[in-house]
């Protein structure tokens, strides 16, 4: 069966619902997002970009959802933990892939070229809007050749550093090295 049509978002079908839930043993809110989506071949995956307009805080997260082919409803459940900022939350993008591999992107904004943005105000109990800190005086780098008996330039590098966050805790850390040829090597944990 040839796929001649991209998946379609039903304009105006975006809905939000806030409920209380327990996640990892802690009380939090759940932002349930639903919308109607249809395709002639079938939907393989749906993804929503959740954003907030908190001052001084820039965050958007791509979040996979579930699709019900009988009701043609895509559903996303986005946990709003107590340390996220009190702000308006909204979908800025919707990404749909059908079984033929055809991708559809739907954008939500104030632009007349996009779907109208729909926001929901969410109050959180302990918003963390201060970025994590790293102690610049406590960064330690250790290096040793991986083949000391026949040095070939390959080096094992260990980096120890001290960082903290006052409310939500330290999340993913990312770092980069620049080798002698100027090539950047990065990693995260």
Describe the structure.
Strands 4, 5, 8, 9, 10 and 11 form a six-stranded mixed β-sheet that branches. Strands 1, 2, 3, 6 and 7 form a five-stranded antiparallel β-sheet that branches. The protein has no helices and 17 strands. The mean pLDDT is 89. It has two domains: 8-122, Immunoglobulins (Immunoglobulin-like, Sandwich); 133-188, no CATH class. It has strands at residues 8-9, 15-23, 26-38, 43-52, 60-64, 66-68, 73-80, 87-98, 103-109, 115-116, 119-122, 133-134, 140-145, 155-160, 163-164, 174-178, 184-188. It has 189 residues and is an all-beta fold. 0% of the residues lie in helices and 53% in strands. A hairpin with a 4-residue loop joins strand 6 (66-68) and strand 7.
- CATH secondary-structure class of the largest domain: Mainly Beta
Q: What is the tally of beta strands?
A: 17
Helix content: under 10%
- Second-tier CATH architecture of the largest domain: Sandwich
Percent of residues in beta strands: over 45%
Query: Which term fits the overall shape?
Result: extended
